[in-house]
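Morning, I've got a small favour to ask if you have a moment. Here's the protein in full, and shout if anything looks odd to you:
***
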Amino acid sequence: MRKKISSSLLILLVIGLGLGYYFYTLPMESLEGVEAEFEFTAETLFQTFKSNETAANKKYLQQLLAVEGKVKSVVTKAGYFNVVLTSGDVSGDIICEMDLRTMQAMPKVGQMVLVQGICSGMLWDVVLVRCVQIA
């Protein structure tokens, strides 16, 4: 009887781990071609969060935002890269975690770009994830 229970629990554990791995590695849908719900300049978006982070989170958190701004830096790490747009404010910028599947060309520092991504809020900087470059 104990052996049957142990075998059943082991089988359920293997199935659970398999399903967990499947859903963890499932690719996310690209945001390319999806219309943004809100459009900002990098300066306006940062000031919106800086002036009232709580209200901005309620309105923009997990929303698709389009942001236009000047590239301050490009940070590359293993498997992904971030484009940092200058906000014109020394206290923070806009960090765009880019979706590598949709990248056509790496933006250059000083270039004006239009990106859209999902807003995940503000730490020191306003962070957008799963970003795609529109222009």
Observations:
- The chain has three helices and six strands.
- The mean pLDDT is 87.
- The beta strands are 38-41, 64-77, 80-89, 92-98, 112-122, 126-133.
- The helical segments are 2-25, 42-51, 53-60.
